[in-house]
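Design a sequence for this backbone.
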């Protein structure tokens, strides 16, 4: 995977997770316990990891070489 493809993929994952978080905050689905569990234990960590990966992409590329 090239650096630009990785960056584009990480960016879209980050955007998609932010849309789910926005849906969680501003919709009536936030009262649903299943959606809350998915948001808290799946989406939030994924967003944090994708943001960290975008921030440290150079180091990760060197580490994986």
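Sequence:
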């Amino acid at each position: 995977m090239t650096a630009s493809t990785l960056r584009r993929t990480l960016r879209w994952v980050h955007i998609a997770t932010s849309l789910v978080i926005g849906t969680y905050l501003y919709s009536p689905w936030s009262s649903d316990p299943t959606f809350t569990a998915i948001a808290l234990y799946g989406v939030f960590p994924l967003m944090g990891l994708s943001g960290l990966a975008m921030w440290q992409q150079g180091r990760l590329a060197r580490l994986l070489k």
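The chain has one domain: 3-64.
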